[in-house]
């Protein structure tokens, strides 16, 4: 904990978040919704790993951030904001609005700036509600999905099909397949997992009814869909993370992040 310099409330806050990195980490955690160490390192500011580590430890010691083991990858840690950390969200949103007003090169999406100006309290409430739902879902999914035999059978079938170079379609859920990420400067082309949501699942992401899944893995797919309705989503062992992500000013999007171990195997195949 930083030494106390005075009883001034502004000084008190600056002792925790007054450097040039801590609010950037909190921004990624609360607004961008990053959760793992490597995700923070990938931000545009290119924070050094030793600085990131020290800031996360400071925030954890201050009671603004918690950490827990990823139930699907024991070596990885998931970081989450506490209520104390979330209480800084109004401050960060005002900083976004101030910068958008005076910085001609701001990267703040216009839709987000309008949302902050017109409906800030509702936006804050949405983020808080989503965080609470994510915590509840993480508690349930970490205990059930890892031991669910039906889910394991579904995942094994999907991954085996992908490794054969074929797509795997689950009616109502969508199609798991592979694609090739194009090469860019300093990075070779490689094969990775992708997911194309069904029309019913896209409607569900926009507020419609849950899709009616069918086939031998209907029960497992239904469990996945139920767990997708928060921005953290659900980590499906081996396959990766599926979630419904709300986009300010736009309709929600269904996203899928293939697991690193699966993508590594696909890239090598």
Note down, in words, how this protein is organized.
Helices cover 48% and strands 18% of the residues. Mean pLDDT is 84; it is low at 143-147. The chain has helices at residues 9-17, 22-30, 37-41, 49-61, 83-86, 89-102, 110-144, 149-163, 199-205, 218-227, 260-268, and strands at 65-70, 73-81, 168-170, 174-181, 190-197, 234-236, 240-245, 253-258. Helix 6 (89-102) runs antiparallel to helix 7 (110-144). The chain has 269 residues and is an alpha+beta fold. The protein is globular and about 65 Å long. It folds into two domains: 9-144, Orthogonal Bundle (Arc Repressor Mutant, subunit A); 149-268, Irregular (HU Protein, Chain A), CATH 4.10.520.10. The longest helix is centred in the middle third of the chain and has 35 residues, at 110-144.
How do the helices and strands follow one another from N- to C-terminus? HHHHEEHHHHEEEHHEEEH
Strand order of the largest sheet: 3-4-5
CATH class of the largest domain: Mainly Alpha
Mean pLDDT score: 84
Number of β-strand runs? 8
CATH level-two architecture of the largest domain:
Orthogonal Bundle
Q: Which percent bin holds the helix content?
A: 40-55%
In the CATH hierarchy, what is the superfamily of the largest domain? Winged helix-like DNA-binding domain superfamily/Winged helix DNA-binding domain
Give the overall silhouette.
globular
Query: Biggest sheet, in brief?
Result: 3 strands, antiparallel
- Would you give the CATH topology of the largest domain? Arc Repressor Mutant, subunit A
- Poorly predicted runs: 143-147
- Beta-strand proportion: 15-25%
- Rg over alpha carbons: 20 Å
Number of spatially distinct domains: 2
Question: Count the helices. How many?
Answer: 11
Q: Distance between termini?
A: 49 Å
Structural class: alpha+beta
């Amino acid at each position: 904990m930083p030494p106390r310099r005075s009883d001034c409330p502004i000084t008190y806050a600056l002792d925790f978040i007054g450097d040039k990195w801590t609010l950037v980490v909190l921004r990624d955690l609360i607004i961008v919704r990053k959760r793992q160490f490597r995700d923070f390192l990938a931000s545009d500011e290119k924070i050094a790993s030793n600085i990131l580590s020290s800031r996360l430890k400071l925030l954890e010691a201050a009671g603004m951030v918690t950490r827990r083991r990823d139930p699907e990858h024991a070596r990885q840690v998931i970081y989450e904001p506490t209520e104390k950390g979330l209480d800084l969200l109004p401050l960060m949103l005002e900083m976004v609005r101030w910068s958008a007003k005076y910085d001609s090169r701001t990267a703040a999406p216009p839709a987000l700036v309008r949302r902050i100006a017109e409906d800030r309290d509702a936006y804050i409430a949405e983020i808080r509600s989503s965080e609470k739902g994510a915590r509840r879902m993480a508690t349930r999914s970490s205990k059930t999905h890892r031991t669910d035999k039906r889910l394991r059978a579904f995942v094994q079938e999907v991954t085996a099909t992908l490794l054969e170079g074929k797509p795997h379609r689950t009616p109502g859920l969508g199609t798991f397949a592979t694609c090739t990420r194009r090469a860019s400067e300093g990075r070779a082309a490689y094969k990775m997992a992708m997911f194309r949501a069904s029309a019913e699942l896209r409607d569900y992401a926009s507020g419609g009814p849950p899709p009616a899944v069918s086939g031998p893995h209907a029960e497992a797919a239904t469990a996945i869909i139920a767990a997708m309705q928060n921005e953290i989503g659900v980590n499906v062992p081996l396959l990766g993370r599926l979630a419904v992500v709300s986009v300010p000013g736009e309709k929600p999007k269904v996203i899928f992040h293939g697991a690193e171990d699966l993508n590594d195997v696909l890239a090598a195949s």
